[in-house]
Structures are given as C-alpha cells and as structure tokens.
C-alpha cells in the first residue's frame, strides 16, 4: 500500500513539474511575442494563471505530506516525546477541521463557479476552483491517517523529529529555503 501512495505522490510531483514548465513556457513565449513581434496570445495569460492556482494547491498537499509547511517548530522542539505527540494530535485535529471547511466551501461555491465561464478560453470556472476538492480531501486524509497512527502508538521518532523540525539535513534545508 505504501508503494501505491509513494507512486501517487511521485505522480503529483511530476504533474507539478508539467504545470510549472507549461506556465514558464507560456509566459516566456508571450513575452517574446509581445516585445519581439508586437502581438501575444491572450490564452497564455489565462492558462498560466490557472496552472499557477493548480500548482499551488497540489504543492500544498505535497508539502503537507513532507512536513514542509510553516510550524512553530521552536516551541515543539522544547517538548519531549509526549508533548510532541499532544501537539501533533492538536495540529492534525485543527488541520482536519480547516481542510474540511475548505472542502465544504468548495462544495457550496461550485454551482456558482460552474455557471461562470473564463473570459478567454470559455472554460468553466469550476475547473479552476475545483482544485479545492482535491486539496481539502487530501489534507483531511493525510491528517486522519497521521491521527490514527498517533492514537494507536504507531508514529515513528523520525516523524516526530520532522514535526519538530529536527530532521533537517543541510540538503533538506537548502531545498526548503
């Protein structure tokens, strides 16, 4: 099962690479067209914005899985194992609540967004804002799985160290900064 999950996250990372590359190519191409040929592709402005939205929200899920989000690591690092577990439980409960609200808000907003069309491409805006379903659901699932492992005593020392920001090698820190 872990292999399937790892493959899924590798797919998400590859998708993020494609979105970033597509965004860079469209913006660069449009700059060249505007300054070199006094023309441009209006669709590239719109699509690069949509790619950026999707890239950001998919990246939030990948970052959450890797404990890459901002935390109060200085405070958590002062606690022992029991204190860290309590902080991690509280953190995951808050994340479940907030991500659930985010998913529910996307659900309530979807009928409005589906009825609106993008100005250039004509795409339904539901395609742009629908990423909230993925991000909200994925963060809830990750937090539920972590909470289950915390409550059943299956959390590893490596995970607690990552939560407290103590597992940071020089290479890992340079990637984050």
From TrEMBL:
Where's it found, cell-wise? Cell inner membrane
Which residues are in the Tripartite ATP-independent periplasmic transporters DctQ component domain?
23-152
Q: Which UniProt keywords apply?
A: Cell inner membrane, Cell membrane, Membrane, Transmembrane, Transmembrane helix, Transport
- Give the membrane topology: Multi-pass membrane protein
The main place the protein resides is: membrane
- Tell me the superkingdom of the source: Bacteria
Which stretches are transmembrane?
12-35, 47-64, 85-107, 127-144
Q: InterPro entries, alphabetically?
A: DctQ (IPR055348), TRAP_DctQ (IPR007387)
Q: Name one Pfam family in it.
A: DctQ
Q: How does it assemble?
A: The complex comprises the extracytoplasmic solute receptor protein and the two transmembrane proteins.
Q: What does this protein do?
A: Part of the tripartite ATP-independent periplasmic (TRAP) transport system.
Q: Which family does it belong to?
A: Belongs to the TRAP transporter small permease family.
Specify the protein name.
Answer: TRAP transporter small permease protein
Q: Which organism is it from?
A: Rhizobium halophytocola
């Amino acid at each position: 099962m872990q292999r399937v999950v790892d493959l899924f996250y590798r797919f998400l990372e590859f998708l993020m690479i494609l979105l970033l590359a597509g965004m860079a190519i469209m913006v660069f191409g449009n700059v060249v067209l505007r300054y070199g040929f006094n023309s441009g592709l209006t669709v590239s402005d719109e699509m690069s914005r949509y790619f950026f939205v999707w890239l950001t929200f998919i990246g939030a899920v990948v970052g959450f899985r890797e404990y890459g989000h901002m935390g109060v690591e200085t405070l958590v690092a002062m606690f022992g194992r029991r204190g860290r577990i309590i902080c991690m439980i509280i953190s995951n409960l808050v994340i479940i609540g907030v991500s659930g609200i985010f998913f529910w808000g996307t659900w309530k907003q979807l009928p409005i967004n589906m009825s609106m069309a993008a100005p250039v491409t004509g795409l339904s805006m539901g395609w742009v804002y629908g990423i909230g379903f993925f991000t909200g659901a994925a963060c809830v699932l990750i937090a539920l799985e972590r909470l289950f492992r915390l409550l059943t005593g299956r959390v590893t020392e490596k995970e607690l160290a990552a939560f407290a920001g103590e597992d940071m090698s020089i290479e890992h820190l340079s990637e984050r900064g």
